[in-house]
Amino acid sequence: MTAVPRRRMVPAYLATGGRSRPGTEGFERLTVLFADRADRAEPPTELEPEHRRLWELLRPGALTVVEAAAHLRLPVSATVFLAADLVEAGCLHARAPIPRAQQTDRSIVERLLVGLRALR
Fold this sequence. Notes:
There is one protein chain. The protein has 120 residues and is mainly alpha-helical. It has a single domain (12-118), classed as Orthogonal Bundle (Arc Repressor Mutant, subunit A). The protein contains 5 helices and 3 strands; from the N terminus they run αβαβααβα. Helix 2 (49-58) packs across helix 4 (76-88).
């Protein structure tokens, strides 16, 4: 008999509190979320259960918004709301995603190869 995946007890739209926009702008799917270890050892008592789950998930280290959403089994858009709330409350920190590297100039790589071959 195969295991039936559990349904979420709280629908994702309730996790956002019925809001259509998060309080903090600038969150992307690849925004890195982390909790400062010097911050509180315990989450604030006024956190909703979904906020607490996100806070506890990020205590050991950093995750992107999309990774956190996967762990919480929430849509990315709902996770953005939760993260924005925690950043505003000072419970979490957010860092912009690392930009993509620029393409390396092929002529430099070819000159490097020629130089390395000349060393033999």
